Amino acid sequence: MNLLRRKSVTQLQSDALTDHRLKRALGATNLTALGIGAIIGTGIFVLTGTVAAQNAGPAVVLSFVLAGVASIFAALCYSEFASLVPMAGSAYTYGYATLGEVFAWIIGWDLILEYALGAVTVSIGWSGYVVSFLHDIGIDIPAQLSAARGTLITLADGTQVAAIFNLPAVIIIGIVTLLLVIGIKESANANNVIVIIKVAVVLLFIVGAAHAVNPANWHPFMPPSTGVRGQFGWSGVMQGAGIVFFAYIGFDAVSTAAQEAKNPQRDMPIGIIGSLLICTVLYILVSGVATGIMSYHDLNVPDPIAVAADHAGLGWMSSLIKLGAIAGLSSVILVMLLGQSRILWTMADDGLMPKFVSKVHPKFRTPWITTILTGVVVAFFAAILPIRDAASLVSIGTLLAFVIVSIGVLVLRVREPELPRKFKAPIVWFVAPMGALSALYLMISLPWRTWERLIIWFVIGMVVYFFYGVRRSNLAKQRV
Predict the structure, then answer these.
(1) Distance between terminal CA atoms of the chain?
(2) What is the pLDDT of residues 342-379, one digit of tens each?
(3) Percent helix / strand / coil, the chain, rounded to 5
(4) Alpha helices in 165-263 (DSSP H)
């Protein structure tokens, strides 16, 4: 039982040239738009408010900066791998080629959690904006069908009701799943349109609301700690960075589409790094404007940017922002479900999951079984989970992926330095360790309950691997 058996990088490169099951339809613009589509979403439209109100105050700006810096280190490592091994699977495939099968399984199992709960988190935020937008135009969704199970919702008359499940979140998951089954090109085109809309809305908010910024709302910039770890002070900024880190996983999702890129060696680094830099700047500007418009205490709502626009006297903009947020969050859900289905498809194709899951639709050339399975599971949890718990779990999953990718780049530089690399991470002996260390630091800053859930998920994954995958993987069969 060789737990450290590895895939050959040269064989993976050969497979990338000959495996045409998935349709290569994405260029640099599509990939950059996929990254922006995944990155600009819950981080701006939802988590900005909750992290400011509960963790960092106006220093949520620093939380975004710290998370962005950690992401840039990892993005450079991802770019090197994505151009070197242009296959679906992202960090899972990179781990398989560098650290061995058991590490690949761990990161693949982790990515399943990351993308699935990413889609869950964003669909919950999408639901909050849809409910608010529909209310503005005179349509009210029953409170019992618009939040996580058991959530107490205060009605207009002051009475409270307990929610049964989140119906709008289930509906959007169903629509996106259907689109992903139909085709990658159709999904990318829909994402491109949505990205244009939401970036325009974000810029409109920044420019239109800037006049209402009151510098007094930025004082104190970093509220003093309450004495509880993670509640304001420096520990609050760090915990906030760990939570909003969830917002930066878009470039990770871009790497899962490598097998559907036209020219992955050139276009993957452009899509990964370009989308990250654009979105980091937008995050910093939006969080600064929002906390300057009103007290951070009042931003702990499902639609903080729309509330900030209202407070700035931009009533005409409020509904537009909500509509842009709805469109924007839709594209995040699309990219998260795309990433999840490709990871699961790759693991099944390697024999670590049941083989039937790796079937590709004969007409649409999409991994339709994994897409539908992902949609069903995500819809279930989106119906019953609150947003904050889901976001924390996604962050820790993403950070673990970053640690493994950063280490893997160094391992491959030492083991196979002669491999032709179309893109090389600059100053790799600084960038890669910093990518791993900064991700570890943010992981440590997350609440213990998040670690508990990750550990439980890890244990379940190892049981699955040792009872199924370790003997059924393609590499195991080759050695029999």
Answers:
(1) 10
(2) 889 999 999 999 888 888 888 888 888 989 998 998 88
(3) 75, 0, 25
(4) 167-182, 184-209, 233-244, 250-255
For 246, the token pair is: 């969830």
Which of 139, 136, 138, 141 lies closest to 315 in space, CA to CA?
Answer: 136
pTM of the predicted model over 0.70: yes
**How far apart, in Å, are the Cα atoms of 110 and each of 313, 382, 456?**
44, 19, 11
In this structure, what are the phi and psi dihedrals at residue 166, rounded to the nearest 5 degrees? -100, 90
Q: How far is CA 254 from CA 61, 288, 406, in A?
A: 25, 27, 17
377 occurs within a structural domain: yes
Pair of tokens at residue 19: 């495996």
Indicate whether 170 belongs to any domain: yes
- What are 175's two structure tokens? 């629509």
* pLDDT digits 0-9 by tens, 79-115: 998 888 888 778 888 889 888 999 999 989 988 887 8
Please state the domain count of the chain. 1
Phi and psi of 43, rounded to 5°? Answer: -60, -45
Domain of residue 19 covers: 9-478
C-alpha to C-alpha distance for 216 and 209, rounded to whole angstroms: 16
Are β-strands 160-162 and 152-154 bridged in parallel, bridged antiparallel, or unpaired? antiparallel
Cα maximum dimension of the chain: 71
Contact at 8 Å (CB) between 57 and 247? no
Q: What are phi and psi of 34, to 5 degrees?
A: -60, -45
Instruction: Tell me how far apart the alpha carbons of residues 312 and 433 are, in angstroms, rounded to a whole number.
Output: 43
pLDDT in tens, 349-359: 999 998 888 88
Does residue 67 lie in a domain region? yes
The reply to whether 4 falls in a domain is: no
Instruction: Give the length of the chain.
Output: 480
